[in-house]
Amino acid sequence: MNFEKMKQTLAGSISEKRFMHSMGVMEEAVRLAAIYSADEEQAKIAGLLHDCGKSMDKNDNLTHAKKSAELARTVYGVEDEEILSAIRYHTTGREAMTMLEKIVYLADKTEKNRRYEGVEELRTLADEDIDDAIICSLERTIEYVKMRSQELDIESLKTLKFLKEEK
């Protein structure tokens, strides 16, 4: 499926708010890819489709990334494993993330429509050191989830530990 058809199909399958978020993630992913010398076309597709499997179900936060990767493959015809992996790990990260995975993870947290305390600092960090930005984001997310007694994916803790050890 060509990119314009992907965009059109996505727009017809999710809410307008989620589509605007997906467009923001796509734009931020392409911008970060330019900074970190990653493939901008891969970043564009992964950013656009990262939430294609997210439903309106509030309990979908931990499962939608895998669902989105599967839909990217089956509905949107994405065969590039790097793109599918970036979609699959955009919420939790993983140990030994590729640059594309880091970019999509961070673009999801820092796209222009995001409004939360600390997002500006995270955007600045994203331009300076992608690993420091991901560490900061993971620490904040883990704290937020714990404060609200929500379920935390163990992969986020593993990702944080791995990145800190790499530093």
Describe the protein in words:
The relative contact order is 0.12. Helix 2 runs antiparallel to helix 3 (40-49) and helix 3 crosses helix 6. The protein has 9 helices and no strands. It has helices spanning 3-11, 16-35, 40-49, 64-74, 81-88, 99-110, 119-128, 130-147, 154-166. With 167 residues, the chain is mostly helical. The protein starts with a helix and ends with a helix. The model has no long low-confidence stretch (mean pLDDT 94).
The portion of residues assigned to helices is: 55-70%
Form type:
globular
H/E series, N to C?
A: HHHHHHHHH
Low-pLDDT runs: none
Average pLDDT over all residues: 94
Structural class: mainly alpha
Largest sheet: none
Q: Name the quaternary structure.
A: single chain
What gyration radius follows from the Cα positions, in whole Å? Answer: 15 Å
What fraction of residues sit in β-strands?
under 5%
Separation of the first and last Cα atoms: 40 Å
- By DSSP, the count of extended strands is 0
Tally of contiguous helical segments: 9
Considering the chains and any ligands shown, give keywords for the structure:
167 residues, 9 helices
Summarize, please.
With 167 residues, this protein is an all-alpha fold. Helices cover 66% and strands 0% of the residues.
